[in-house]
Amino acid sequence: MRVADKVAIVTGGGAGIGAALATALAAAGAKVVVSDLDEPAALAVSERINADHPGATVGVGADAAVTEEIRGLIAVAQQHYGPVDLYFANAGIVGAPGLDVGDDDWDRALDVNLRAHIRAARLLVPEWVERGAGYFVSTASAAGLLTQIGSATYSVSKHAAVGFAEWLSITYGDQGVRVSCLCPMGVNTKLLYAGQDSGSELGATATRAVVSAGHVLDPADVADIVLAAVAAEEFLILPHPQVLDMYRHKGADYDRWLRGMRRYQASLSAETH
């Protein structure tokens, strides 16, 4: 899909990958609703983009996991620019590390990293099917294909996000709805270092695992890769190409892969002492 003259919503747009996506979309000629739970951050990103591309964006404070607030984002897009063509379900959280995580933490991780995608799709996909066109971009993670050392909530919710994106593509792909699923490893954002900042050994190990697994990319570079994939209508977006080899190794011999991951975790844990 060509993004020029299209209308997009980007959640988690107040920083990191989301801000970079909004910037790249506007530069490519799209109109963008920049959404973030942190309203001042969303407004600041929108203002910065509009300085270079007047009127290209509007910033909105919203919780991307709440149906009525997603509905509000769609209404803002409609009011300012027209019907939504692309939805970037980018908002995400890491979640607390370890097994001793309460139900509230599990619910929030699943709400933000998975159910937010489901709730947005419920509102958008029926209209896209009627129009015969629409694009849903899910920000998952390499953890959704592999795993995340340390955080069960992150690993499980990102696996589920990949699964939902697959289902969405299979179910509606022949009706004009395009789907892409972004699965990066390390990207230089606050989210990357959240585990390290948690103060727990497992959290620090989780951050070290991501940082040591491959080159940490700049969000702007990831955004460029995403837009190229959207233009080509590719499902799986891997800014770190080595993830595909890791994924193949996992599928080829699951038990061997699990043993290797346990060894890797032990070596990282030893480095933190």
From TrEMBL:
Family per record: Belongs to the short-chain dehydrogenases/reductases (SDR) family.
Record keyword Glycoprotein present: no
InterPro entries, per database record: NAD(P)-bd_dom_sf, Sc_DH/Rdtase_CS, SDR_fam
Keywords assigned by UniProt, alphabetized: Oxidoreductase
Official protein name in the record: NADP-dependent 3-hydroxy acid dehydrogenase YdfG
Annotated organism of origin: Nocardia fluminea
Gene3D superfamilies for the chain: NAD(P)-binding Rossmann-like Domain
Domain of life: Bacteria
TM region positions: none
Pfam family name, one: adh_short
Molecular function, one GO term: oxidoreductase activity
Oxidoreductase as UniProt keyword: yes
